[in-house]
Fold this protein.
Amino acid sequence: MYQRTAAIVGVGQSDLGEIPGSTSIALMTDAAVAAVTDAGLAAPDIDGVIVRGPDDEYCFQQLLGERLGVNAAFSTSLDNGGASQALGVILASLAIEAGLATTVLCGYGRNAWSRTRRAGSRRARMNQATTRRVREFRDPFGYFGEPATHALGAQRHMAMYGTTKEQLGHIALAFREHAGRNPAAQMRAPLTMQDYLNGRPVADPFGVYDCSLRTDGAGAIVVTDIARARDLRHTPVVVRGFGSSNNLRGWIADDHMVHTAARASGERAYRIADVAPADIDTAQLYDCFTYMVLAQVEDYGFCDKGDGGGFVASGALALDGALPTNTAGGQLSEGHVEGMLQIVEAVRQLRHEHPAERQVPDARLALVSGHGGNTVCHSTLILERAA
Amino acid sequence: MSADAASPPTTAAQQPARQLPPPTPESQPFWDACARHELHLQCCDACGRFWFPPSNRCQHCWSDRFSWQPVSGRGEIYSFTVFRRAYSPELADQLPYVVAVVELEEGPRMVTNIVGREPEAVRVGMSVEVTFTDIAEGAALHAFQPRNDPQAPASQAE
């Protein structure tokens, strides 16, 4: 069993948003430098690198090591989609506890906006999209991408439990409100329920405000052992527990689109951390689409399965709610950096370094999730402010 | 095709035709059957169960001995979504259209389109039966339509 000896000691991010001409590796390098500097460390201190870049850039960890001047005892790139970033912290913690590495840099960077807007037109974006893998049994039916995948889950949840479009809207509104307090966020303008309901349709029941942003951006963190962590400049954030679960049979198989992999991942994380849902002070949940937040608050046991609509509509996700969630704005409003900024924000909350208007008072325990990999891979972190 | 944003909107006459991705050796028998307006899936010689999408071994018992067999074509809608914008130009004249996951009586689930009913009337759990949409010479896609009498045997599709 994991002995809870790993801690996060540095966090950083690149500029976020629409950054014409940006490259994934440059964004990643900026975030990595920010995180290592935040920890008060330098290149010779880093002996592990676990990162993820765009799927079409081979061996991203090598590109980063070259730019940072780092050789690593332990390094890899990850391939679990949006579950990779939390998984990277799990692997870093295990590597540190096993003695494979002492101080590991984890990160994600992608020029997601720039790579689809090179010619500045809608048509160019569609042509660019042809680089994606053709899915023989999806594409001919006009099934376009991840919005359709998650919309299928939302529609079934609605049919089973009476969940409404307005309830999904409360998720988008809560995160936009948080982004309004975050100067770095990509989308900060206030969003009303009427704006949300009038958003252009994407794939029923989703409109544009149910979908996460297209962001040029990167995030990074530094993980080391708790003894080293206590000698560094910030209050350590201990990796208290973690879990993962991967419904590899697929999103449309079994009951995966309603009872997601978050459930088993969360159960493992709670067991290893020896905490319960009621102990969690803030959640930073993977919000590629509003529906995934709804499914996860149920799957993580913050409410019963089927009650997520009422839970989110009650104001629970607000900074002063029962479960302050995605307190920097999430991928729906801060920026889509594939779950990496969820980890960064959890650490900032647990360090108590935000101004009062953004801080969850006395936050001690945070739950962070990652979700992706054809919609079925899931990873969970439970992070704790060191005593 | 021009990527110029000033190009006029696509009209039906200019709309590119829908097409199938090139079949693989594993999927060729499936698409050949669809072209004949028949729904065939792999059935395991060892355990008798069906699976989809195509694979070189039975998903249930891992046997590599199987044959392509016709299925009932009956099932129900597991979930669905509606597209109201064309994210690909060849779908422009289909709008709005329904993409669904249908669970067949034989067990496998498949992504498909629901036709023959306006999107607003489509429901999770609706009983459906297979039909086929010809998209090109020798190429057809399986689609499903609501069954008028869910208790009766399937009408001879096609």
